């Protein structure tokens, strides 16, 4: 059974995409039907102004792919492309999320209940629910070494207060693209969260040394993995796993080059559970022994080359479970993070679920 007004909203959106999706280049129903390999009356039924038919989800996927890139209409006949760039893929995911919400409402269902958070990616969360990214805060002794570090400086840059900027930049854009109707905020891990922020979907970047919120949450959740604290910035620490039989320690690998050490492999922790401050929301940790590990935990589900297989692995292992964690190796090549593959025994170190 469909809901009349939401169904009309979806029909208007599909018609708008066709007629105004590419400025100066409206697309006819015949052209779109040819690209989708369907009949013209079917396209017309989805756009009907009084009694539209709600298209199946796979057809919305075709819409999202087609209108994610102008390359779809570079030459005739127009076509749905088989592969997209990272930027085009992000646009596709944002549009698809919007269309799925409209479709779900047209069917008279609740988006929060019927669009699972991991429908296509673990970073897709229910629409219209706040998301708070809590990023490690760079210690004062390190911030003072940066130009424009103080608020009184004319060249002050607020982002200088954060550590793990690579991870924050990568994840913030991805979360915004995956959740276009959600409010996404960024807060420092050394600050105080408001009650509303604490009870939102929490995303924690960085470990217990510089992210106090991560340290606080780890005290409140049942996770058999403990991150070792570093006495100072030059020390090496890792993760301890208690599997009820023995305690295993996983450390990053460094190689001595002259008087310095080069990171060859970090350790990354990805953790997802219900938010202990609000059971209707989630908490997600992306953590590492070093900042390269944090970025590896993030890119496991943002890198277009690996996120589908890593998502499929997590869903096959932990579908329906409230809490799970994945500990993985993160190879580092000349400072560049190699995205961990959770399906590879060479990368996967440990898995746990409640």
How would you characterize the overall build of this protein?
The structure is a single chain. By secondary structure, the protein is of the alpha+beta class. The protein folds into two domains: 4-114, no CATH class; 131-353, no CATH class. It is built from twelve helices and twelve strands. The protein has helices spanning 4-20, 29-36, 40-46, 57-66, 86-106, 111-114, 140-143, 165-178, 195-198, 212-220, 291-299, 307-318; strands spanning 131-135, 184-188, 201-205, 225-227, 239-242, 247-250, 253-257, 260-275, 278-288, 324-333, 336-337, 348-353. Strands 1, 2, 3, 7, 8, 9, 10, 11 and 12 form a nine-stranded mixed β-sheet that branches. A three-stranded antiparallel β-sheet has the order 4-5-6, with no helix packed on it. α2 (29-36) packs across α3 (40-46), α5 (86-106) runs parallel beside α8 (165-178) and α8 (165-178) packs parallel to α11 (291-299). The longest helix is centred in the first third of the chain and has 21 residues, at 86-106. The model is unreliable at 111-119 (pLDDT under 50).
